[in-house]
Amino acid sequence: MVIVVALANWVGATAVYTFTAGTETIAHVKSCDGSRNSVCSGSWTGRRGLAESGQIFGVDRADVGRDVRVRLGPLGAIAARAWGFVFGLSFLALLGDVAIIALIVRWLRRPNGLIRTPRLR
Predict the structure, then answer these.
(1) What value does the mean pLDDT take over residues 69-88?
(2) At residue 26, what are phi and psi to the nearest 5 degrees?
(3) Which end of the chain, N or C, is less surrounded by CB atoms within 10 Å?
(4) For residue 73, which of 13, 8, 17, 1 has the smallest C-alpha distance?
(5) How many angstroms separate the Cα of 48 from the Cα of each of 45, 51, 52, 62, 76?
């Protein structure tokens, strides 16, 4: 579980970094697969001025054929308007952190644990 939470924290932090400090550019949405929560791909000019292509997070079928503002980071291209996507990833990471903390506290308070609860007489 710790590995899953660590991965969720890394993905959440990377998404926040990309959304707030990633390189800003314009991407052209080429296609989307699937009906709902579709996976869209497109092309853009990368950090070094070279043409790049790949998946674009935060766009949908209505954006096919359009140019959208994106930010580039370790996860790829994230649409500038995709704050819900970034918030969702960060929220999931936070929930995982709370779960780990709760498990640690529970483990420490067990009968053989380090923290003893005082008994009432």
Answers:
(1) 85
(2) -110, 130
(3) C
(4) 17
(5) 8, 9, 10, 29, 14
